[in-house]
Amino acid sequence: MNLERWIIVGIIILNILLIGLFLPKEKAREAWLLFLSLQFITWPAGLFAVEMGWINYPVQLLIDANKYNKTSFSFEFLFFPILSVFFSLYFPKNKNITVKFLYYSIFASVFTTIEVILEKTTNLVHYDEWKWHWSLISIIISLFINHHYYLWFIKRLKKVGHQ
Q: How do the pLDDT tens digits run along the chain, 163 residues long?
């Protein structure tokens, strides 16, 4: 197994640890909602970017993954959705707009910085026409849509008495 695959395995282990340590058991249902709904956003968006030739993922965890799905399975279906769970569950809902803006910005910036480092130092991601600021913008938009869907869904659940 090459270095890139070990990096993916390490990130998977880190994500599992984050879930085990920081995901409250009583929020498991909400976590599943957030996890699955972000996949609904990231898969077509990632597929579009790859098919347009803007970005590619030369090395995948599963060796033959690029034959069937040219997006990054690890990123689109695991890492980003798991982190979006924490983004929404720990969102500073009772803070002012400046704090909320900073929360979005810092979260997306850290994620983008990690992607840029991986792009520069590994074969996990390769920017063709893509630029780091497109990642930053798409992460913010994805988090915004997913978080507001989550708020809408929870509000509807409370109306029908399921929470």
A: 699 999 999 999 999 999 999 999 999 999 999 999 999 999 999 999 999 999 999 998 887 766 777 888 889 889 999 999 999 999 999 999 999 999 999 999 999 999 999 999 999 999 999 999 999 999 999 999 999 999 999 998 777 765 5
Please tell me the distance from the alpha carbon of residue 133 to that of residue 1, in angstroms, as a whole number. Answer: 31
N- to C-terminal Cα separation, the chain = 46
Q: How many CB atoms lie within 10 A of CB 44?
A: 12
Please work out, in degrees rounded to the nearest 5, the angle formed at the alpha carbon of residue 26 by the alpha carbons of 28 and 162: 90
Question: Which stretch of DSSP H or E encloses residue 127?
Answer: strand 126-127
Residue 11 belongs to what domain range? 3-159
3-state SS of 56-110 is ECCCCCCCCHHHHCCCCHHHHHHHHHHHHHHHHHCCCCCCCHHHHHHHHHHHHHH
Cα separation, 149 vs 30, in Å, equals: 11
